[in-house]
């Protein structure tokens, strides 16, 4: 398992590196076919290809497992800091988010196959290539695969001390473009209209939408504008990250952002707003609570003390949860510091533990 993890980690697979993601996909296809599973490749033109895996082509599984092959790290990162093991921890780009999960899913299926468990026939696996950039092309594939499913297990990394994720925030991205009128700031500033000034008013109002107690965050994370220091700026732009806990928040904050964009404080400016909430929240429901309790009990039988965690990060779990399918995330091997250039790690002790846990969960859900 560690040898395979090393090979995958040492293969760059940034979301925009189609060649690298496809190398990871080709390796996984080979490994799953070696254990007798059916693999369908969904070819893409820009991002990497997606994989769809079942025990048999015409089977109708009730459990959906979702993993992503892309990382946030640029091409060349694996050569710069290749896979390494220090003590019980494995390091390298994407080791925790989520290449250790690739190994976990493969070996869970291998264990079910070799033990003769019929539960292997009840699994439908999606490996997608664009999760880190919003699952642009894979969202429809995931939603199609979700039809008729009873459960969804998403193998983002497990949390320390045997945590799994039962609740995630929804994610939105908006862009505000303000147009003013350029003019020489020394010769005739009075005929100019400052787009930056208008944007500044909007940024303050946008930041005031934050409600940390209710789990709503609005972050104006990028701004740019102007053409030169001695020119009244004719253009300014801001990009906004939004995180919401439920659908009511999504509707209300979207309306507020549109209202702020539509207000004119600096006369003569024009504002264009684009974007939306593109990942719904993964809300904790009664059905997902029942699924968690079953996972907790399964973990207890294996000697693990499973607990639930809520997180502000988004994942593909949102798409199946939004379809009303009981969904649990964070089923993958345990680690921390995803996206870190130096500290991201996977606890190698959890690699086998979480593989066994996943196989046992599949068996329990297939009874």
Automatic annotation (TrEMBL):
Keywords: Carboxypeptidase, Hydrolase, Metal-binding, Protease, Zinc
Peptidase M20 dimerisation domain sequence ranges: 166-268
Taxonomic superkingdom: Bacteria
Signal peptide residue numbers: none
Gene3D superfamilies cross-referenced by the UniProt entry: 3.30.70.360, Zn peptidases
Cofactors, names only: Zn(2+)
Active site: 70, 131
Gene Ontology MF annotations: carboxypeptidase activity; metal ion binding
Coiled-coil boundaries: none
Matches recorded under PANTHER family: ACETYLORNITHINE DEACETYLASE, BLL0789 PROTEIN
UniProt name for this protein: Carboxypeptidase
Organism: Pseudobacillus wudalianchiensis
Lineage: Bacteria, Bacillati, Bacillota, Bacilli, Bacillales
């Amino acid at each position: 398992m560690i040898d395979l993890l090393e090979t995958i980690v040492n293969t760059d697979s940034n979301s925009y590196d189609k060649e690298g993601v496809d190398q990871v996909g080709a390796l996984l296809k080979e490994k799953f076919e070696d254990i007798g599973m059916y693999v369908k490749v969904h070819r893409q033109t820009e991002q990497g290809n997606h994989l769809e895996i079942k025990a048999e082509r015409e089977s109708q599984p009730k459990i959906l497992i979702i993993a992503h092959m892309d990382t946030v790290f640029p091409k060349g990162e694996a050569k710069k800091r290749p896979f390494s093991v220090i003590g019980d921890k494995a390091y390298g780009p994407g080791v925790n988010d989520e290449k250790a999960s690739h190994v976990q899913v493969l070996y869970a299926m291998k264990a079910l196959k070799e033990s003769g468990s019929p539960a292997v026939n009840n699994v439908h696996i999606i490996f997608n290539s664009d999760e880190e950039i919003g699952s642009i092309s894979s969202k429809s594939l995931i939603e199609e695969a979700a039809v008729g499913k009873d459960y969804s297990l998403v193998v983002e990394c497990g949390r320390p001390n045997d945590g799994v994720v039962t609740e995630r925030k929804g994610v939105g991205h908006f862009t505000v473009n303000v147009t003013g009128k350029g003019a020489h700031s020394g010769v005739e500033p009075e005929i100019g209209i400052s787009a930056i000034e208008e944007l500044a008013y909007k940024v303050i109002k946008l930041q005031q939408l934050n409600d940390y107690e209710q789990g709503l965050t609005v972050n104006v994370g990028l701004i740019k504008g102007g053409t030169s220091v001695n020119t009244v700026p004719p253009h300014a732009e801001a990009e906004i990250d939004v995180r919401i806990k439920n659908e009511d928040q999504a509707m209300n904050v979207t309306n507020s952002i549109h209202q702020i964009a539509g207000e004119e404080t600096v006369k003569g400016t024009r504002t264009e707003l684009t974007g939306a909430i593109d990942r719904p929240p993964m809300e904790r429901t009664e059905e997902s609570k029942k699924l968690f309790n079953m996972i907790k009990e399964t973990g207890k039988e294996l000697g693990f003390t499973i607990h639930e965690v809520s997180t502000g990060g988004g994942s593909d779990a949102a798409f199946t949860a939004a379809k009303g399918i009981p969904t649990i995330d964070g089923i993958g091997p345990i680690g921390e510091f995803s996206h870190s250039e130096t500290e991201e790690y996977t606890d190698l002790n959890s690699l086998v533990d979480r593989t066994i846990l996943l196989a046992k969960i599949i068996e329990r859900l297939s009874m």
